[in-house]
Amino acid sequence: MSLHVVVGAGPTGSAVARLLADSGQRVRVVSRRGNGPDHPLVERVAIDAAAGRLVETLEGATTLFNCAMPPYDRWPAEWPPLAAALLNAAERTGADYIMLGNTYGYGLVDGPVTETLPMAATTVKGRVRAQMWTDALAAHEAGRVRVTEVRASDYLGAGAASLFTLLVVPEVLAGRPVSYLGDLDAAHSWSHTWDVARTLVAVSRHDAAFGRAWHVPSTSDLPVRQLTARLAEVAGAPAPTLSAMPDQELERLGETDSIMAEIPEMRYLYQRPHVLDSTRTEQEFGLKPTPLDDVLAETISLGTAR
Asked: Are residues 148 and 160 in the same domain?
């Protein structure tokens, strides 16, 4: 029975752990608070992965899943030491290293976003993510560790924390007007938490997956306006009143919310179409996204992360 270590006990990390455990694999979930799924094959360990004991915790494991997520407003300070510790632990123990990433490292993209695009980040957080992948890929190419990365877009589903789940979902369910940043009619990819976990597990099981990145099949590419209308229909809520958030309102929110203060530099993702091409993932692993209405029903019934 193989042992897998999952760092991060949020919605995606917990889903990865449950998928592995349900298939009969031993799982060790590492987080600062010792959280994780309640399952007989899941061991929960409370440590700070960036501070030590990670190599010891990883001994005997075949794979290391990086599903960690430092606070959004502290990425430049907290991601580099954590990423370095995870990569070092994988190298020292021989575990395969599977990273959960996003699309920030690509920067501004015209047309569909494919995995073959170079890292061309234009923001602080984008450069953090790009450097994590660059460092890991260099270690892979040097033969020190096997590395792959799964990249997702904005999240939907149980426990998902995205601008849509935080700003739109509660207002629609309460029948209140909604304000959202960006072009409300620009196509945008949406990733289901469970589909992200399924993709992470799938790539971990294929030798050909390593040394390259993979995109999660999107549950939808609907623009925000259409997605919001569909959310209301699934919820049985009144037809929503949706408007574009003025820049001044976004800046005002950032004055009292350190997370919202980080959003302006990522605004470009919502001002133009942002569509992930997951053709390669779907063909290689036979993965298909969860139907949108099922994802929205789950989002409504089980709530969002706070």
From this structure: no
